[in-house]
Amino acid sequence: MGVLNDVYEMLNTCNKCGFCLTACKTYKTDLREPMSPRGRIQLIKKLADGVIEPDKDYEDAINSCLLCGECAVACPSGVRGNDLVLAARRDLKLRKGGIKPFTKSFALKTLASPSRLEHGFNLFRGVGKGILNRIDGLDYFRGVDVKGMPVAKKPFMDQVPEHITVNNPKKKVAFFVGCFLNHSLDGTAHSVVKVLTKNDCDVIIPKDQVCCGLPQYAYGDFETAKENARKTIESFLKKDIDSVVTACASCGSMLKEEYLKLFADEPNYLPRVKEFCAKVFEFSQFVEEEIELDKSKLKSHTPVKVTYHDPCHMVRHLKITSQPRQVLRSIPRLEFTEMNEANRCCGASGLVQAFYHELSTDITRQKTKNIVDSGAEVVATSCPACMLRIQGGINFAGQKQKVVHVADLLAKAYKSEN
Fold first, then answer.
1. pLDDT in tens, 255-266
2. Pairing of strands 163-164, 201-204
3. Where does a domain end: 80, 96, 112?
4. I want to staple 142 with a disulfide (CB 3.0 to 4.6 A). Which of 166, 264, 288, 357 is the partner?
């Protein structure tokens, strides 16, 4: 298949040394070779060579990968195992004429469509929550804290105007909200807007924005991902803006990096893509690098001990690590402490947590232990999916720590009169 031919040289670059096994969380949990980067790479190569067929065991090996990128960091030969898995998923999609099983395909199509997604959250808010509250034992479904999952009373983008102005704005910033902040963690979305406006930014929230396309891209549906990417690029570039800010690490990685790969085969459109990508900033990166944070506006926070979880897309894709920590340390009376393995994957990884829940739950359990061992009362992070996954893991473990976004802590620290 053409997709595997494109990465065949990298498949052959793997020298089977095993350094990746020390980093791979699925392998450390499962301890079977096919669940390691080395094992996955050899399976992909055998498929490319026509030695094996893509049976269920092959699909499980490919689809259970977290795409966390830790193997790429560990590899002395520079092999990016996560990119090879992505190519293998694309190959599977093309071989089978779609994404299997139907439940996964349905979930990805729902995420790609704003109307379907809103309808789904409306059902969950109403009928779904009602059913859960009446049935004992359904607090957690396949490792996900479904009963504890917050749902906005109405989407964030329906709560705010498209253009939020300030006096004497220094910058015009477009806010890419993302699916979870729009429908679940709307309070965090308000925190982002509060921080931006407190720092003299006009905020534009395009009402026609859609999913960034990452869920579909991660499972090989490049066609749908491209469609949403093109909509996103045109929606934001038609606005008179200086920057695009997102408070989701996964969305940030897709908007900033993966769009360039996705449109690499369209040289005529690529300049437009590059123009958009150059404007994209993750929230804490924007706060630290693009605005001068006036600490005199910050009030003394209630004394609290906070640790930080590095989302995979932040630490290994966007290479953003110091900025969120600097933001946290700027907040008065907030005591920051590092946890062990702060950059360890939390186990969410999109749909992996739903289809390989036992594996995901074991990975989350270790993250939860590291949080408890840190002695922190609050866990800050920069990814809504990580927030929901880690909070569910903490709840399941019977612990009391709260998981919040960096933006939530910073927004809370602003004096009300400013």
1. 999 999 999 999
2. antiparallel
3. 96
4. 357
